[in-house]
Every structure is written in structure tokens, then in C-alpha cells.
Amino acid sequence: MKTSSGFGSGYHTPTTPATRSSPVCALRMSTPAGPMSSTPRLEAWARAAGQPWAHALAARGRALLTDNEDDYLRALTAHEGAGRPFEQARTELLYGEWLRRARRRSDARAPLRSALKTFERLRARIWLERARTELQATGEWLVAAEPTAASPLDRLTSQERQVVRLAANGGTSREIAAQLFLSPRTVEHHLYRAFRKLSIRSRRDLARLDLS
């Protein structure tokens, strides 16, 4: 597993999907001191990554641990222009949930609507239903979305869809692997399976498919 350092002797921070979920893991720790003790490590990881999306995830993690609205707002600010719409929508959903629990139902609707729209566009069904449920809990009525024409991407797994979209945009296997925290070999495996499901033979064939 690759690690990044730079916080002092012997300190290493894993750059894996598991790291991004550390706030959730911390919240499940049984000791009261556990969640708060993970905050410095999360912030150190974000500084090492040096990317806006990493700072957004760190701020979101702090918000989950501290229940502080300012941290949610910092996370949303960091998400702007970071190019991670799914993670931004997750933060909006969490912030909307926080506002609703604080009995600020009117304030909760804007971030929940934004999250819902993104999850619809990304076809993230589980997250879409969660956002829809939260938005309805604020008292907002939602009209069921009309069925849309089946997309070729509906045949793929979530990971395969991510890989295919990046490949269609010209990303090499190594570049895609770095962005998704995978190995190049795993990327090639996902492409192989996706090509079979889509009845195509090469990356050039992706250009004729509707991948929106």
C-alpha cells in the first residue's frame, strides 16, 4: 500500500479509499476519545494530499466528529471547483441532514436539493433514495422522476462506470488508477469487463456511446 509522508519522522498516511472513510470509522469507535483523536491525522492527511477535495473530506470528517456547522460550510467551500461531484453531493446530504435534525428544515432543503440533483445525474440510486427521503422529511413534496431511456452505463457496476468515463475522456490506465486509488491492472480488468458488456472492442469505440 502506498503511503505519503512529510509530517515528521515516521509518520505515514495511507492514500487509499479507506483513508477517506476514516471519519465514519472513527465515529464507530467505542471509546469517547477515539473520534477526536483521529482529527489531527485526518488533517495531516489532507495537507499531504494538497488537493481541494482532500481538504473538503477532512472538513467533512471534522463536521461529523464535532457536530460543528462551520466545518460543514468549510467542506462545501473546499468542494467548489474540486471536480468531485459525488463527494460534494455526499457532503451536501450530510449537511442537509444536520440542518433537519437541528429543526432548520427550510435551510436544509437547498443542500438536499443539490445533492438529489447530483445523485440523479450520476445514477447513484442508493444515495438518491437517501436524499429523497431526507428532503421529504423537511416537508417538501417530490414528484417521482419519469423513467428515462436505458443508458449503456446501466449495464456496468459503479466502479466500471467510473473507469469507462475516465477512459472515454482520454485517461490512460495509469492515470485512471491514480485517480481512483486502484492498480493499473485492476483498471484494465474493469475495462475488459465493461467492453464485453458494452459489446465494444477498444477505447476508440467509447466515443460512439452515450456516457452522459
Query: From the helix content, strand content and strand pairing, which structural class follows?
Result: mainly alpha
Question: Overall 3D geometry?
Answer: flat
Rounded to the nearest angstrom, the radius of gyration is 19 Å
Major β-sheet, in short? 2 strands, antiparallel
Number of domains: 2
What average pLDDT do the residues reach?
A: 76
Q: Give the percentage of residues in beta strands.
A: under 5%
What oligomeric state do the depicted chains represent? single chain
Annotation field: number of helices: 12
Any low-confidence stretches, pLDDT <50, length ≥5? 1-37
What strand order characterises the main sheet?
1-2
Number of E strands: 2
> Which percent bin holds the helix content?
55-70%
